[in-house]
Amino acid sequence: MAEMKRDEDGSAGASAERTARVRNPRGQGERLREDILRAAGGLLEQVGSEDALSLRAVAREVGIATPSIYRHFSDKTELVWAVLAEHYERLAASMAEAGASAPADDPLERLRHQLRAYCRFAVANPAKYRLMCETWQTPVDEERLHGHPAGLLLRGLSQALTRCEEAGWRVRGTRSEAPYLLWCALHGRVALWQVMPRRKDTARLDRFVDELLGLLLEH
Questions:
Q1: Cβ(158)–Cβ(179) under 8 Å?
Q2: Is there a contact between 121 and 90 (Cβ–Cβ < 8 Å)?
Q3: What is the pTM of this model?
Q4: What is the pLDDT of residue 25?
Q5: Is the predicted pLDDT of residue 65 greater than 80, yes or no?
Q6: Helix axes 178-195, 126-134, angle to 10 degrees
Q7: Is the pLDDT of residue 216 over 60?
Q8: How many angstroms separate the CA atoms of 66 and 18, rounded?
Q9: How far apart are CA 112 and CA 157, in angstroms?
Q10: What are phi and psi of 145, to 5 degrees?
Q11: Are 43 and 57 within 8 A, CB to CB?
């Protein structure tokens, strides 16, 4: 593929980018992939957008030629999504663990624990959270969009709401939009909590979660 021989500015001088990096022994391709993800994540935190991310800069950071990235990621979008996926997976795991700590027969309380865990994750990992929610990403077609790592979060919220419905709770408003409403509300509240010059009391976030659930669900 011609794309694999050129970086995003169209130059073919990959050999000029080669550095003294020692090649990973056979079977350690996963290590190189992790190195690429780590470098891309660090650069994304600096530039803030997929368009501004240079694959040449990623390769230089790792110490490889630019075409070597394409052995692990088909294009820059796949690389960026892979970086984001690591953090969405950690967030989803934190929320799942928090939900499991609530009574199994109380889906509303489990959802409450999950939403509070979302807020705690955002507060404890501000740089990673900004990367997840504030990185400008290149638009893709609808079919590819279904594979975005944020889907993990939205599916988890939708499943939690379904369990509430099965227990007799009714979701106010349009059901298909409810997971997005939860996410947008949480993100907006966390963003204000982080930037406003008030004393940082996470109990305010807990109270917001309670208010949010009271507005969205009725028995």
A1: yes
A2: yes
A3: 0.86
A4: 54
A5: yes
A6: 130
A7: yes
A8: 9
A9: 11
A10: -60, -30
A11: yes
What DSSP designation does 171 have?
E
For 132-168, b where at least 16 C-beta lie within 10 A, e where not — what string? beebeeeeeeeeeeeebbbeebeebbbebbebbeeee
Q: Please give the pLDDT value at position 8.
A: 42
pLDDT tens digit sequence for 123-155: 999 999 999 999 999 999 999 999 999 999 999
Residue type, 192: L
Q: Is 200 helix (H, G, I), strand (E, B) or coil?
A: coil
Assigned token pair, 121: 């994750």
Confidence of residue 29 (pLDDT cuts 50, 70, 90): confident
Contacts of 187 (CB under 8 A, 6+ apart): 122, 133
List helix spans (H) across the chain: 29-47, 55-62, 76-100, 107-124, 126-134, 142-145, 150-166, 178-195, 203-216
196 to 36, 120, 183, 192: CA distances (angstroms) = 35, 17, 20, 6
